[in-house]
Amino acid sequence: MRRILASLLVLGLLAPAPAVAHDSENIAVARRIVFPKLQDGRSVLAVDLHTHSVFSDGSVWPDVRVEEAKRDGLFALAVSEHLEYQPKAADIPHPDRNRSFAIASQAAIVKPDATGANKAPLLVVNGSEITKLAIQPGHMNAVFISDANAMLPKAGLNPVDAAREQLKTANAQGGFTFWNHPYWTSQTPNGIATLDPVHADFIKKGLLHGIEVVNGADMSDEAFRIALDNNLTILGTSDIHGLIDWDYDLANGGHRTATLVLTASETEAGVKSALRAGDTVAIYNDNLIGKKANVEAVVRATLKMEIGEAVPRSTVQGVSIINESPVDYLIENLGPNDAYDEGHVFTVKSGSTFTLLMKNVPDPAKLALNFKVLNAYVAPREYLTLQLRDVTP
Ligand SMILES: [Zn+2]
Ligand SMILES: [Zn+2]
Fold first, then answer.
1. Dihedral, 99, 101, 107, 112 alpha carbons, nearest 10
2. What per-residue confidence (pLDDT) applies to 333?
3. How far is the CA of 234 from the centre of ligand 1 (A)?
4. Among the bound ligands, the one closest to the CA of 184
């Protein structure tokens, strides 16, 4: 612990960078959603599977989506234009519905002279948003599809039958599908997501694999409950139409809404199979939301405790809590030991070490603290709890 503090002190003294450059550099680093590997060796990859461009109702050319995704440290980005909603078609006619994907894919190619975020590779995924106005069946995304044109609705079918056919097409293309913003007030005036017979049937038939528990700035406990009860993959997406920089407070450590994919393979196939297996955590406003095993794996890989030194002639023991994740952790100490110099609730900032003194620790090797992580949800209104011990060998 002392070594960490000493090196921080040295860095602080030796690197008085100009304030402006230093800040923008810090923002560029802080906005990246990059997690270390899990203890079992799997990677944690950030993906955003719901975005728009001018090829439906978004405000930007698809290459802007790519640039943002690279700046945010994403592994994969899906372009998912509305199939049935084309408000810009008069200005931007595009009979080929794969154009957005083609342009984004081209923009994602790493050029030999690339600098900064553009040096990083980005997997661009083809997708489409099935867009029915009624609650049944509302909006659903199909990603990892091979041909968006084949996803266009068949004429003469009612919205439910048309959507079923579109989901079948997506599945036949090997796609991954999910229910978008199931609580959206345009379709659900009370804001409460409810599993209706149409979606229940899609799920039962294996046509619908996931659900947005978070869409942009909105989170739904009811969607979270539907996900857990029906074993649907939990997703967070930006559904960005304007600019990520407009919608998120990146300058103050914010991150875009996204999905963390826990995968053994940093490949398209690896991401797809983890999505199919439900190995995801939604990241939203510095909250982690998911099935317990997934949230716990991510937090365990990034939140650690080290024993420091005791206050002389006392059993008051210094400990360091280390946060190696890009999000701040809000922690409630459940004991059994209380802190001497802190309350029960404290924040361990992203990428930092928080030191505190614990009372009545006669044998530091046996110290085990039970923490509730107040921004890690394993069920609606239910937080992750975990026990931390010293990690140093
Ligand atoms: Zn939508
Ligand atoms: Zn959308």
1. -120
2. 97
3. 16
4. 1
